[in-house]
Specification:
Distance between the termini: 67 Å
Protein name: RNA helicase
Enzyme class: hydrolase
Number of helices: 26
Strand order of the largest sheet: 3-10-4-9-8-5-7-6
Oligomer: single chain
Organism: Branchiostoma lanceolatum
Shape: elongated
Strand content: 5-15%
Bound molecules: adenosine-5'-triphosphate
EC number: 3.6.4.13
GO molecular function, one term: RNA helicase activity
Largest sheet: 8 strands, mixed
Length: about 675
């Protein structure tokens, strides 16, 4: 049976997961269940994993399909087709029994092609997410497609078809799939590290509290909060003069003796982290050598960011100790942690508390769940957080913070935060009032580039952001503009293409480095990373070159642009979504923003061009239209906002001068 390593991983873990779930349905003997849990090693060949579980692969027709049907009834799945299912012998007493997997001899095409199974990733499996919670991702590619589209520059990604936009005019496949969108965790991390100051918001804080009669008060200064002097010094050390809008309302409740439980929602950058860090610090006694505050974040990077705030704000608290419950931080079973604050990700903290027992959850005074919206987007985190939460004492103060407020977040919040006060600060509306919007008609992308050059040739532009639909167009345009002498920053999901990686590997080898190049058609990023680790473990010096731009690299690109080192930032929808770069003078939609269904994306349009025209200045937005389709998309956007988008003739220098001149 031939299959790529990644296919093996996906299939094996999905099936193991399936079996793991199945024990609840068909009562596997405990010893076997335990062995199955142990056998979740990433990348083990399917057959080894099965053998470890005491399972055998057979090729006969299914005789155990009723169990399978029962399973799907219970978990809401469906049969995937003939020849793919469970088979085995049911013992006479009806108890126990070893389910045996049956795969078609052709390399399990049904499993691989099925959205259901390919949606079960290793993460679902590792984090113990119930199968019923596995979200089916219709965009998810089969391993073969992923391998083909991953980091090749001579292959185009699988097209989503309907997402086609103006990029079609270039004969290029317009799928977003040619680069990877930053995950919610990455976006959240990027925002945090890029944030330099508080986001101001003039809206009123809305409050919903359990007892509407209990008095509410807000503070206008940190002194009013009666903080211990060492903590107040820490706040000043952070450079905070007065509480932010959300802090004014939240802090008096958070710090009150009755340990109010709270769900707080406001946009990123409004001061939530500072508020809960202050609460954690105010609740701990550094003389007591055990964890008293616990904070969960969705990723290691975010946990470390929070830790930095804790360490800065707690700078004057003598003896304060912080531990990071994140992957790679090892603790010995039974060791008792003497740190006062634990910040970590749900999986590791769960292990530390319930498996290794290094934290006594009953002694935790305050429990914080940060970035709940990002947390629930990560499979498994929700369940793990709930399991941790269940072991906390009733007197523990529970706090949950989120940038959004939709139903899944609230449902989760209600489970982990009993009797909460809910506070909310609505995002200030962005408006198009200060922005002059134009469109330019161009035949193809070369014509778009010419139009852009004309604009640059006639007037001097401050900083400009250009949005393209795909990473490929962005890279092409960046090269063209560089050729024209512009200082250009390029922010896309792909840094190294396979070709570049191969070239770099050769260079490095030439310089005497031992380089194993792990990219290409067969290996996906995950398999490559796994293999690199394995090889390193075996003492090889391995450089892993894949097609992804690391978060740190993205930060550096954005920072360079913000510092004015480059005047033009060319980016894609995917990479720029949710990331604020303030104060550019010109926004160019090289391609009209569309959503995954090819419909005009008004929200994104507003967000993109809202970057210009801030601080009372007039901004300028230019949209490039290359056919009837993009024209119709733009008209819909115009109708949506009810603001005129005027035609601009970029062959007419005077017209350009008038348009740009108005903006200065
Ligand atoms: N009272 C304050 N005065 C001045 N600056 C503040 C204040 N509170 C927070 N800040 C600063 O504002 C920025 C955003 O604050 P913070 O990280 O607490 O917001 P957040 O809502 O948690 O955002 P995110 O969700 O992105 O983490 C940080 O640089 C922080 O140091």
């Amino acid at each position: 049976m031939s299959r790529s390593p990644e296919a093996g991983v996906i299939v094996s873990t999905a099936i193991s997961r399936f079996l793991y779930e199945l024990q609840e349905v068909s009562h596997l003997p405990p010893k076997l269940s335990a062995r199955m849990r142990e056998s979740r090693t990433l990348g083990e060949p399917l057959s080894t994993e099965w053998k470890k579980c005491g399972l055998t692969l057979i090729e006969k027709k299914s005789t155990f399909s009723s169990v399978l049907d029962e399973f799907f009834e219970e978990y809401g799945g469906r049969r995937l087709g003939p020849g793919c299912g469970l088979t085995g012998k049911q013992p006479a007493d009806g108890k126990g029994g070893f389910p045996v997997l049956k795969l078609p001899s052709t390399g399990s095409p049904v499993l691989r092609k099925s959205q259901y199974w390919s949606s079960c990733s290793d993460d679902h499996f590792r984090t113990g997410c119930p199968l019923k919670d596995v979200k089916i991702d219709p965009e998810k590619k089969t391993p073969e497609a992923a391998a083909g589209a991953g980091d090749g520059d001579d292959k185009t990604a699988a097209s989503s078809g309907s997402a086609a936009s103006s990029a079609e005019a270039n004969g290029e496949k317009p799928a977003d799939g040619d680069e990877k969108a930053p995950s919610p965790e990455e976006v959240s991390f990027l925002r945090k590290v890029l944030r330099e100051r508080l986001v101001q918001n003039k809206n009123e804080v809305e409050i919903m509290q359990k007892d509407p009669n209990s008095p509410l008060y807000s503070v206008k200064s940190f002194e009013e909060l009666n903080l211990p002097p060492d903590l107040l010094m820490g706040v000043y050390h952070m450079g905070f003069n007065a509480p932010s809008k959300i802090q004014e309302t939240a802090l008096p409740m958070l710090l009150a003796d009755d340990k109010t439980n709270m769900i707080a929602q406001s946009q990123s950058g409004t001061g939530k982290t500072a508020a809960f860090v202050l609460t954690m610090l105010s609740r701990i006694d550094t003389k007591k050598p055990y964890p008293q505050a616990l904070c969960l974040a969705p990723t290691m990077e975010l946990a470390l960011q929070i830790g930095q705030v804790v360490e800065q704000m707690g700078k004057y608290m003598e003896g304060l100790k912080v531990a990071y419950g994140v992957r790679g931080n090892k603790v010995a079973r039974g060791q008792k942690l003497g740190d006062h604050i634990i910040i970590g990700t749900p999986g590791t903290v769960l292990d530390w508390s319930l498996k290794l027992r290094v934290i006594d959850l009953r002694k935790v005074e305050v429990f914080v769940l940060d970035e709940a919206d990002v947390m629930i987007a990560t499979q498994g985190h929700q369940d793990q957080s709930i399991r941790i939460h269940k072991n906390l004492s009733r007197t523990c103060q529970m706090l949950l913070f989120s940038a959004t407020y939709d139903d899944p977040v609230m449902a989760f919040a209600q489970v982990v935060v009993p009797d909460p006060v809910i506070i909310r600060l609505r995002r200030e509306e962005e408006s198009l009032d200060n922005i002059k919007q134009y469109y330019v008609t161009c035949e193809n992308r070369d014509a778009k580039f010419r139009a852009l050059s004309n604009i640059y040739g006639v007037v001097s532009i401050g900083q400009c952001m250009i949005f393209c639909h795909t990473g490929k167009t962005a890279a092409w345009l960046a090269e063209k503009m560089k050729g024209g002498g512009h200082a250009v920053a390029l922010l896309t999901g792909e840094l190294l293409t396979r070709k570049t990686a191969a070239w770099l590997a050769e260079k490095m080898k030439g310089d005497g480095h031992a380089v194993a190049l792990l990219t290409g058609e067969l290996l996906t990023r995950k398999t490559a990373a796994w293999l690199a680790e394995k090889m390193k473990g075996d003492g090889h010096a391995v450089a892993l070159l894949t097609g992804e731009l690391l978060v740190e690299q993205r930060v550096s690109v954005i920072n360079r642009f913000r510092d004015g080192k480059e005047k033009v930032l060319i980016t894609t929808n995917l990479c720029a979504r949710g990331i604020d770069i303030e104060q550019v003078t010109l926004v160019v939609n090289f391609d009209i923003p569309v959503d995954q269904f090819g419909q005009p994306d008004c929200e994104n349009y507003l967000h993109r061009i809202g970057r210009t025209g801030r601080f009372g200045k007039t901004g300028l937005a230019i949209n490039m239209v290359d056919g009837p389709r993009s024209m119709s998309q733009l008209s819909k956007i115009q109708d949506h906002f009810g603001k005129k988008i005027a035609k601009l003739d970029t062959e007419d220098a005077e017209a350009i001068e008038t348009a740009v001149g108005e903006q200065e």
